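Hi U.,

Before I forget, here's the chain from the pilot set. I'm dumping it here mostly so it's searchable later in email.
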Amino acid sequence: MAATKYSHPFLNGLKPIVEGRDEEIQQIKEWMKSQPHLPYISDEYVLLFLHSNYFKVKETKDTIECYFTLRNNTPDLFSNRDPLSPKNKTILDITHMVALPKQTEEGYHVLLYRLSDLDYSKLNFADAVRVFCMFNDVKLSEDRLSEGYVVIFDMKGCNLGHLTRVTLPALRAFMHYIQSAHPCRLKKIHVVHTVSFINQVMYLIKPLIHSNLLDLLNFTSEGPEAIVDKELLPEDYGGPAPPVKQLHEEQRRNMEENYREWLIESEIFKVDEKKRIKKPSKGMFASFTSSFKSLDID
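Structure:
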């Protein structure tokens, strides 16, 4: 692969470098040399995958394989990553995607996602997943090796019209990515202000969810203040942090101004199927039955 202009997956590098993991890093690098379809990646990239899997080598290999394969096989979700492109700008206009300023007592980062424009006709689900993944890549770069993530999806204002905008191929790829490829330590997913049709939503996604992820899910009809320390929350939810809209605008500007070229360049990180020696099993990427990456569940 040609040399990249930017440092990936950490725009400003990984400092300090994790010590005492040379053996695991070398094992992954040697394995990747035997997999010509995989792209060349930096030691820092290897460390991100190892860290997300608690330095378990086998699980790390599975995550790497799934990560780069999905990025090649689902171009609707992992190409066209310019945050200033019309489709991506639309999603950033109608959603709020924010990382809250403070971390939990355990040192976990808290991410909050919600709709800011409730007109369901403006929502393209595949575009939304793409921007969601772009935002998360920026967060991994900013946070470096985070101890964990608590995710809050605020469904206030969602209606059945939004459900009709969900496309099954994009949903399948998204669920597979979150469960088996996203290199982070996911600790909890809170779905707040749950809607009346939550049973229909679960009917749609439950076949795509492994038991490990089900254990992380929490549904409540209450708001975020009922499930996380109010001191972490924006003033919209009774906390001391700036309003969600302000946080979104600041973090959107960071993505557009500081990460734009980095995100576009990141499209090169994918498998080359022409060089694959052994084809993946049909079930791995077609029926999404591959093993779920290791998680520590609190």
